[in-house]
């Protein structure tokens, strides 16, 4: 099993299955997290996660809770595969003679994994956030007391004709991730898809530094003996606990990333020039508590997502599929 787990195709399969199952289950909560994080004081459309989900279903239908899910379902396979494979790669190179790693080396391996995954994570999050937040902007435009055409913030022309017509009466026109990506690439080049890269690094690197060592040590507690693997339920619980802990720990970074990557702004919502500008404006106008917006949602999203990922990974689902189907040619 240890040798098989070095197979990149197996990691792709494990990460893909886990990501698709996990995203399908928890995506509505992730949508609520994005919308709650983007709300400003005095302009709250949603009071809580449940309130957000209920209002989303009422105004956009059941499928409205899955706005942007196609982007995640498409890119979650390479993202999870890169994260898990990179962590294994760095752990193997940091270990000496097969001996266990110190906590510091485990953190270094997690840091390397976090830096590698942003290649996929940044454009995925960039496209997903635009689609997820469109419903909040539409709901905000339906409040005439809080919206005025003279107060609309001038935003990047990208997406403006898709989401906003700069009038209160018209709702934003639905667009696809492909349209958004084409417009971003056409107007800003490849860097348009990587807006918020720094904020994504600030979020994902600390997340991996916390998650991977914590998971490894929690999972180790469930092993009957040093030479045997922990039970699948223990791997699942370890992934859930480590994932939710890391998610809450880096939630302030996630709030900053979400604000920076939201190209379209609602009434009187400020634009930010960078990470420092975003942090200072949030602190000054909304207070420290704003950095914890959506923390509960994020914990509920990440916990099962990484729990499922670790079960797939440690159960060797990918290895089993490769050994029992024509796909075994990929690992040859």
UniProtKB/TrEMBL annotation:
This is Mitochondrial glutamate carrier 1. GO terms for cellular component: mitochondrial inner membrane. Mitochondrial glutamate/H(+) symporter. Responsible for the transport of glutamate from the cytosol into the mitochondrial matrix with the concomitant import of a proton. Plays a role in the control of glucose-stimulated insulin secretion. It is a multi-pass membrane protein. It comes from the Eukaryota. The chain crosses the membrane at residues 12-32. The lineage of its organism: Eukaryota, Metazoa, Chordata, Craniata, Vertebrata. Pfam families: Mito_carr. Keywords: Membrane, Mitochondrion, Mitochondrion inner membrane, Repeat, Transmembrane, Transmembrane helix, Transport. One of its GO terms (biological process) is malate-aspartate shuttle.
């Amino acid at each position: 099993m240890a040798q098989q787990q070095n197979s990149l195709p197996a990691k792709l399969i494990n990460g893909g299955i886990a990501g698709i199952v996990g995203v399908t289950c928890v995506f509505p909560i992730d949508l609520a997290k994005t919308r709650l994080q983007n709300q400003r004081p005095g302009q709250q459309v949603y009071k809580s996660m449940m309130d957000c989900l209920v209002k989303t279903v009422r105004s956009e239908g059941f499928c409205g809770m899955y706005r942007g899910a196609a982007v995640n379902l498409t890119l979650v396979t390479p993202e999870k595969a890169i994260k898990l494979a990179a962590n294994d790669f760095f752990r193997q190179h940091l270990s000496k003679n097969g001996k266990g790693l110190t906590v510091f080396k485990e953190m270094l391996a997690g840091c390397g994994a976090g830096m590698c995954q942003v290649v996929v994570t940044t454009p995925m999050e960039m496209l997903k956030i635009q689609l997820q937040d469109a419903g909040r902007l539409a709901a905000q435009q339906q409040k005439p007391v809080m919206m005025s055409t003279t107060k609309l913030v001038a935003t990047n022309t990208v997406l403006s004709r898709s989401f906003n017509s700069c009038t209160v009466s018209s709702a934003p026109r639905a667009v696809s991730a492909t349209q958004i990506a084409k417009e971003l690439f056409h107007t800003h080049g490849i860097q348009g898809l990587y807006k918020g890269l720094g904020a994504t690094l600030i979020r994902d690197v600390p997340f991996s530094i916390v998650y991977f060592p914590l998971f490894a040590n929690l999972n180790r507690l469930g092993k009957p003996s040093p030479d045997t693997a922990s039970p699948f339920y223990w791997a699942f619980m370890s992934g859930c606990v480590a994932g939710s802990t890391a998610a809450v720990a880096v939630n302030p970074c996630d709030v900053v990333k979400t604000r920076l990557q939201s190209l379209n702004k609602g009434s009187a919502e400020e634009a930010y020039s960078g990470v420092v500008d975003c942090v200072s404006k949030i602190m000054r106008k909304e207070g420290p508590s704003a950095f914890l917006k959506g923390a509960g949602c994020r914990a509920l999203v990440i916990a099962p997502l990484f729990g499922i990922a670790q079960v797939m990974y440690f159960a060797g689902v990918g290895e089993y599929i490769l050994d029992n189907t024509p796909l075994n040619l990929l690992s040859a």
